[in-house]
Specification:
By secondary structure, the protein is α/β, with parallel strands linked by helices. The protein folds into two domains: about 170 residues, Rossmann fold, CATH 3.40.50; about 170 residues, CDP-glycerol glycerophosphotransferase, C-terminal domain (Rossmann fold, 3-Layer(aba) Sandwich). It is built from 16 helices and eleven strands. It has a five-stranded parallel β-sheet with strand order 9-8-7-10-11, covered by helices on one side. A four-stranded parallel β-sheet has the order 3-4-5-6, with helices on both faces. Helix 9 links the parallel strand 7 and strand 8. Helix 1 packs across helix 16.
Length: about 375
């Protein structure tokens, strides 16, 4: 577990696990809070550590498992020896779609040493199935990981199920508003750019000023936790209606956001499913460079819900205009099979073993 967005499914697996079987979650230490949540629910959790002790004691457990769910690329799978008829490895991935390229479609990966390239492909090949939410994302894995179409399972992604739950949305909103009452009753503009290297963490001059152009709106800035704050020019955030919210996750803030401003972040595929989502602005000021490396997905301008903008002046105009965006076609393309019940189809197919899981949409 590298991300904490599949907790609902994990708990349901624990509750529905056939007799005589047990569930173990091996987690990245950055998801410690999620691991504590699962532990309180009665799920055994083990931190993932690249140590001799971990390799000696835990890898044999992995090799003997009947079923392994992954939500990311795990290098340790490259050398995993397992009887394929007994052990199945399922990739759930951590995003419903993607704007930027990864895997073999990223020129940077193709420049890696041949041993690293070989290890990557060994990991990609270990997955028996890829659970996806759309034909579009299935095609991405076919190209990016060089996988056959037969491995793509169109069940929807369990991580998206919570976005269809009014109870979950309301609970998160209440929690956020208790800690950030300044967001209540305001137009919330969430600025969530994709991760960038240290020399690129600061957006073009005037970006934050443009975002703050509507004095009646609150601009919530959410940066990746890996961003070195020492590299940030803090003076750019001086506006009274702008604040960096490190205490919340991007998903937390999205539940209250009216407008999402991003560039190439995959959070747009979640935001577009939220009932209060009014608009999205794609501030792709470096699109020409980004198209070269790491690259962007084919047909970007055809399937984006609104055209990307490239200048600070256009960004300011878009913020002030506050034009609503229709996400219907975008969701049909990328969130085709997401309906709030993906967890049930995944559990039916892999944990319980029902063969018609993909066709069963009943609760």
């Amino acid at each position: 577990m590298s991300y904490s967005n599949n907790l609902h499914m994990i708990k349901r697996i624990a509750a529905e696990l056939p007799a005589g079987q047990k569930l173990i979650v091996i987690y990245n230490p950055r998801t410690l809070a999620a691991a504590y949540d699962l532990r309180a629910f009665g799920v055994k959790t083990i931190p993932l550590k690249m140590s001799i002790s971990f390799l000696i004691h835990r890898i044999p457990q992995v090799m003997s498992a009947r079923l392994i769910f992954c939500d990311n690329y795990y290098a340790l799978l490259a050398g995993l020896i397992r009887p394929r008829k007994k052990t199945r490895i399922i990739q759930l991935w951590h995003a419903d779609g993607t704007i930027k390229c990864f895997g073999w479609e990223d020129p940077g990966q193709r420049r890696n040493h041949w041993l690293k390239r070989r290890r990557h492909q060994l990991v990609y090949d270990q997955f028996d199935d890829y659970v996806v939410a759309s034909k579009a994302m299935g095609s991405v894995f076919e190209r990016s990981f060089k996988q056959p179409a037969t491995k793509m399972q169109y069940l929807g992604t369990p991580r998206s199920d919570r976005l269809f739950s009014d109870n979950w949305l309301q609970t998160v909103r209440q929690r956020v508003l208790m800690a950030a009452p300044e967001l209540k009753g305001k137009r919330v503009i969430l600025y969530a750019p994709t991760y960038r290297n240290a020399e690129q963490v600061n957006p073009p001059a005037g970006t934050i000023k443009a975002l703050a152009a509507n004095p009646n709106a609150v601009v919530a800035v959410k940066l990746y936790q890996e961003v070195n704050r020492d590299q940030l020019e803090m003076e750019q955030f001086k506006y009274p209606n702008v604040k960096i919210y490190d205490e919340f996750t991007t998903t937390d803030l999205m539940t209250l956001a009216d407008t999402l401003v991003t560039d190439y972040s995959s959070f747009i595929f979640d935001f577009s499913l939220m009932p209060q989502a009014r608009s999205a602005i794609f501030f792709m000021y470096d699109l020409k460079r980004y198209q070269k490396e790491p690259g962007v997905q084919t047909g970007l301008k055809k399937w984006l819900p609104t055209a990307p903008i490239n200048t600070v002046a256009d960004l300011k105009r878009a913020v002030i205009a506050d034009e609503p965006v229709n996400f219907a076609d975008f969701n049909d393309y990328w969130n085709t099979y997401n309906d709030g019940k993906a967890y049930k189809r995944v559990i039916d197919k892999y944990v319980i073993g029902r063969k018609n899981a993909a066709e069963d949409n009943d609760e």
